[in-house]
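#struct-pred

JT: dropping the chains for the assembly here, can someone run the whole complex?
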Amino acid sequence: AQTVTQSQPEMSVQEAETVTLSCTYDTSESDYYLFWYKQPPSRQMILVIRQEAYKQQNATENRFSVNFQKAAKSFSLKISDSQLGDAAMYFCAYRRESNTDKLIFGTGTRLQVFP
Amino acid sequence: EAEVAQSPRYKITEKSQAVAFWCDPISGHATLYWYRQILGQGLELLVQFQDESVVDDSQLPKDRFSAERLKGVDSTLKIQPAELGDSAMYLCASSLRRSRDQETQYFGPGTRLLVL
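RK: done, full complex below.
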């Protein structure tokens, strides 16, 4: 069975600095998707970034980028120039390539941003 | 921008009572998901619909939970009777899922349930 592990329950960063959140996963599939979702306090979960496993190039969305290491089954999220609004729970999620398969989530990392 | 709607946002109930949550996905989204998020833990899929059909309810406690999406649009999740351990956030999500590039799930604001 596929699993997603986020080993950092909490992280903190100074405003304008860079922080990296870790995620590892376990799968025997070769084709799948990986996601980072952000859940701000009392607000809904939103997609930050996604990566298709068949793509070698790391995904980037403005200040958010990933380091996708397929062989190591690692999918870390880098947030550059951190802002106060980046404070949230961040969830890493996996989905295999299938018409019906579900997202499998990690337990999340709470990111605090200090001014 | 279209969003997933959920109601109520908060629900307090007593043990053994019945509760129901409603979700309206983004228009045109064929796939609808109900997740449960217990404080400090990740999300657990309870049920997944493709149009009006259930495609995965393996983690749904069927003795007390039920879900329906009769017309393939909005959906209702019911718990009867509620137990203390059901206190959690219940999140609904939807996706187009008609092609490889349309699998991103969009989440609603959730319903926070407290069972006393």
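JT: nice. The longest strand of chain B covers residues 43-50. The interface with chain A takes residues 3-4, 33, 40-45, 48, 50, 55-56, 91, 93, 97, 100, 103-110 of chain B (CB under 8 Å).
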